[in-house]
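sorry to bug you again but im stuck and you know this stuff better than me. theres a chain ive been looking at and ive put its sequence and its fold in token form underneath. id like you to explain what the token line says about the fold, in plain words if possible. anything you notice is useful, everything is just below.
___
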Amino acid sequence: MYVAKMTIGGRAVPGTTTFEVKNPSTGQVIGTAPNASNSDLDSAVSAAQKAFTSWSRKSDDELQAACLAVATKINAHSEELATLITLEQGKPLNGLGSRWEMGGAGAWANYTSGLSLPMKVLQDNGQGRVELHRKPLGVVGSITPWNFPVMIAIWHVLPALRTGNTVVLKPSPYTPLATLRLIELFNEVLPAGVINCVTGDDHSGSIGAAMAAHPGIRKIVFTGSCATGRKVMQSAATTMKRLTLELGGNDAGIVLPDCDPKAIAEGLFWGSFINNGQTCAAMKRLYVHESIHDDVCEHLVAFAKSVPMGDGMSEQNMLGPVQNRMQFDKVASLVTDARKKGELLLGGEAGDGLFFPATIIAGLKNGDALVDDEQFGPALPVIRYRDVEEVIKAANDSQNGLGGSVWSRDIEHAKHVAGQMECGSVWINKHGAIQPNAPFGGTKSSGFGVEFAEEGLQEYTAQQVIFS
């Protein structure tokens, strides 16, 4: 049994009550995490405010060195953290699973450590000198989801630290253990109070909501659902917090008629079913030209049948369970509705516990729930189309606008189609391949603000212009 503690001001804090954390593969309790009180949150914010005084005054070189030390610590404990991720999140150790997540976390930490926002001279002439400086905001509140508990924490925290901010982080109650351990490791190389972690079960009082409204927190970074993002935005309005919101996606993939169905099958599968479809920027809707629709479905189903699913701790498995019962029930409901309207090509029947097989359903259209609603799970609708202009319109017929993809042998034509898609990122002949040197963010209800690269780093700073 893993007994986790919060980290507040560099100290391990048990909390007055705890909640259980279960392995979604087995249903067994694997650990406990503390239920933070509002007093614990106040203590964490106070510790971060106190640490900000000295942390924000460190030189750019000192901040970079500290962040590199964090990256080294992450890499040194990669296997330990990967095991915790698999136990509480369910994703397999192998494939695009928890070891892959930890590899991504280390890569992002290293890359972000090397970024910088130097002073810019806007004018220097007889009329005077004008300089643009970037200054840290203060205490940043990070609220992370359950699908990538370590990697998304790195996405939130490293740019905050790199720009001289301090942090209070709250992980999902479904997957708090790896994140709590991660922050313990951070505190082995960072000054006390620079990064703090509080947890709660979201039933006995929402620490996340309290963070969004807390007057001592100057920015909230949130990754999660559109509905919760709206609540965060409303709560943050009273204190005029800065916000970065990476919310839900209902990404469309468009397969043009010149594709080789067999050649793209593997890419289509993992673009859709990475982390069992529990990925914001996974492909949630697949539009295939009528001339190759049946062949694409045939090869996609054939590849899907070759991917083993089971307990993530078994080295041979490549897909795991749906992480929690609420999400499982949503996927099952959408699939039940879709089976009445379309043609079930694969899967469709719930397995034992939280295991839901990779499911592919053809014959659906815009307006059907599995097409219109983000399933966030292992169920893919395949929609037949005839005209390219019509399919672009269908792809854009969504409240979301996170990502999209175009599949074609003609790269220039694919780029032309991509340019008409209403989303923050578009990939050609792949899907969801985010990287730390390219800004990432959504449009419409998928949130605002960007993460990654220099543009993401800027979001953790305030501009100050000095005229002399």
User: Anything to note?
Assistant: The chain has a mean pLDDT of 97. Residues 38-55 form the longest helix (18 residues). The radius of gyration is 23 Å.
